[in-house]
Amino acid sequence: MKGAILSLNHIILDTDELQFQAWRDLAMYEFGMGLPGKMANQLAGVDRHQALDLILKHFNVTGVNEDELLNEQYEMYSKVISGISEDKLYPRAKQLLNNFYDHYVDIAVNDIDGHAKKILQKLKVDDFVDAFVSPLDEENPYLKASQELDVQPAACVGIGSQTNEIKLMNETGVISIGVGDAEELKEAKYQVSQIGDLKYPMIRKVWEDNELDE
């Protein structure tokens, strides 16, 4: 195992929480009312366009410039990120990053929302990361990440919390590890319910077992 390709959400920290705060700020600014806490689960894990649709339906608003609202939310998300500190970092996540570093495993981050580097700088763990890749590129981000790390996809593990992330890992040949709901992430080569359950020796074993299966 020479590379590890990580997502941020539910792996390093809870970005759903940060995104929800930005959506709340947008709702207050544009519609004069915040969002109820129960909407947090509805917005978790969906892309920004889907999230905006849900919010507009909540307020029964039509005929607005959606691109403009998305840009506003992006700026508000940047402000939310500016205010975070190391306490948002999952404690086990730093331990995992240290384990990869100690075993000479290079790390790439799948930068889904374009803020990964800034977030990791605020959490003071950006020095662990060797490459950032964006899924907005046409190329599979896990293939791109392995290229950036200069290792074969099969020599990498990918750790993510979304079904589409696991799908892209499997398509590329990266050994997929899912963190979250077992049924949703059933296509992963290995699955745990939370990042605290994921230990380096087990990750190494999962990679070795799948390497032998090839």
From TrEMBL:
Protein name, UniProt field: HAD hydrolase-like protein
The organism of origin for this protein: Limosilactobacillus avistercoris
